[in-house]
Amino acid sequence: MAFITCSFFSNVLQKSTQFNAIIPEGRETGAPVLYLLHGLKDDFTSWSRFTSIERYANEAGIAVIMPDAARSFYRDMAYGGAYYSFFTNELFPYVSRLFSFSTDKEKTYIAGVSMGGYGALKIALLNPSVFGAAACLSGAVDISNRLSRDPRWAEIRKLVFGDQIDVTNSNDDLFHIIKEPFSSPSPRLYITCGQDDFLFQNNLSFVSALSETSISFQFDPAPGVHDWKFWDAQIQKAIKFFFDTK
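Request: output the structure for the sequence above.
Response:
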């Protein structure tokens, strides 16, 4: 098993950026790959620092890419980096060129926590030909509601969204995205949230909206709060979900 930190210059971001990569033993070629996204207060090192993802990846035989996205909400920021374009137009092709992982949609996954959970769903649903499955752990799934009502999001609203305070019915609104037709079969979704998490009710509302669509999903609420103890347990379940195609 190899753990690699890769630094490279991004033409999209116009700066150097980094990601951590886990390559399981004996799966250097053709391994399924999981893009694992961090939350608002974290960075590309958080998954490897606060969970046992390296062990889980090796046991499952899955490669893991953990990129950095600053505080972007995986969006092309109004005042900052174009992170959505970076991921979709630069990072994914770069990883494919650099490594020999599988490029099969059914072996390509994306997951994240909190802001990263939102990002994982948004990226997967807007790129259904790339991802076979996505997992959202304690995701900030209802950003339209939070942007307009939560004063703690004032900084994010300005830097990420600029003057666009209302993102309802846009490609930043997950509730809107799931109602739109897909260019190819939508990815399977795994959604989990701690029952004492401040985002739990938002996740219940999103799951209710999902149930009115044809998107295949599994909702797995569990005791817990918005912390790494919960996410360390749930990422193991998410990996099992990715491999369960029955």
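Residues 2-243 form a domain with the Rossmann fold fold (CATH 3.40.50.1820).
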